[in-house]
Specification:
This protein is mainly α. The chain contains 6 helices and 5 strands; from the N terminus they run βααβαββααβα. α1 packs parallel to α4 (103-126) and α4 (103-126) crosses α5. It starts with a strand and ends with a helix.
């Protein structure tokens, strides 16, 4: 059975299986992701070897599959969140200034941006046709859609339209990093 949750009061990051360290709210994973991104950018900047590029890509793809499928537990029913920007609204607010409403949701938003950020700079380095934003960013969207659909079908997570948005933003930022830092 399909479950549609749209209540703005309910934090939608109740799925704690995306975190490697229970109780961390995802902050450790965000730091690990940032570390991987910085290290991979430095390595790609220092070396032109294709073997290093493919090694980084392999590690990245494994991490994506690991965090989106392998560490998750199967739920009884498919869960969908179809209201755009709901996770973001549950994470941050603006009442007389910036307010963090839910650290877990904020980390989830950040983690989803970071998850696809390497895709935005790895694809153009791997494949010549991907050296244009109009090629790379749609591939980011389609990759995110594939993951979300697989999670929906397998009940390993939920289909969240905000994940599509934040993953695509991550791919776009990654492409910007490619254009500004990593382009040959």
């Amino acid at each position: 059975m399909w479950t549609f949750l749209h209540n703005p009061i309910v934090p939608i990051a109740n799925d704690q299986v995306w975190t490697l360290f229970p109780g961390s709210d995802g902050g450790v994973e965000v730091l690990m992701s940032l570390g991987f991104i910085v290290l991979s950018i430095i390595l790609l900047k220092l070396t032109k070897k294709r073997s290093v590029l493919w090694l980084i890509t392999g590690i990245y793809l494994f991490a994506v599959i690991f965090f989106t499928m392998l560490v998750r537990t199967r739920s009884q029913e498919a869960v969908t969140f179809l209201t755009p920007f709901q996770t973001i609204r549950n994470a941050i607010g603006w009442n007389d200034g910036f307010t963090i409403l839910s650290r877990t949701n904020l980390y989830q938003v950040i983690a989803n941006v970071l998850l696809f950020l390497p895709l935005g700079y790895l694809l153009p380095r791997l494949f010549r046709p991907m050296r244009h934003w109009y090629s790379t960013i749609p591939v980011g969207l389609l990759g995110s859609l594939a993951i979300e659909t697989t999670q929906l079908i397998t009940h390993l997570g939920c289909f969240d339209v905000d994940d599509l948005i934040t993953n695509t933003i991550g791919a776009a930022i990654g492409f910007l990093i490619y254009r500004l830092i990593l382009r040959k």
